Amino acid sequence: SVASHPDEGVRRDTTSLLEHCIIRYCSFHWALNLYTSATVRNCEVQDCESVGIGVLAGRSRIEGCLIARNSSRGIRLHAGASADIVGNRILSNMMEGIDVGFSPGVVIRGNVISGHLVGISNPTGSTRIEGNVIAGNEIGLHNAHDFVRVRAVDNYWGDASGPQGNLNPDGKGDRVSEFVDFIPFLRERPK
Questions:
Q1: Is the pTM of this model over 0.70?
Q2: Who has the most CB within 10 Å: 47, 72, 135, 155?
Q3: Contact between residue 45 and residue 75 where contact means Cβ atoms under 8 Å apart
Q4: What is the pLDDT of residue 2?
Q5: Peptide bond into 123 cis (omega under 30)
Q6: Are 81 and 56 in contact (CB under 8 A)?
Q7: What is the SS3 assignment for 21?
Q8: For residues 19 and 40, is the Cβ–Cβ distance under 8 A?
Q9: For the stretch 139-166, what's the b/e string if a residue is b when 16 or more beta carbons lie within 10 angstroms of its beta carbon?
Q10: In Å, what is the CA distance from 126 to each residue of 102, 107, 152, 162?
Q11: Are 67 and 47 in contact (CB under 8 A)?
């Protein structure tokens, strides 16, 4: 079922498939809320005064979507929720492209994540970040933990020299925080 709520925009309460939809210009706290495992495929969530897609529970799949110019985060996971975030264009959301929310087992693969204050924030040690273009952000990847290493290999960071960080001070790509393992990185933008 699809429901509209005064504070939420589109709400998915059942395991389902939502595809080829367009959500634009909403002024809710969340443009699209996933309360149970759902698949969101080939959708557009743009220009909303909110978080683009919120994953609040279950394990969802967000694939082939355009998530752009929302006034908060592109995608935000709540603790305990999980997702496979694959092959999306996540562009120019005001804060983070993806806020993992310290959720375990999140997969972030094959996305273009660009134009944010922070491309990816709050991952855990079990977050898989691979094969993405993470470029044009103030900070590409921010790990808020000083006791957990995050593996983010085989990503393109906007420059052949790799990301800028403690392990690669001459990198000209997006900055990464401490406790991020980003080697090997891609020297060319994947096609």
A1: yes
A2: 155
A3: no
A4: 44
A5: no
A6: yes
A7: coil
A8: yes
A9: bbbbbeeeeeebebebbbbbeeebbbbe
A10: 10, 9, 11, 22
A11: no
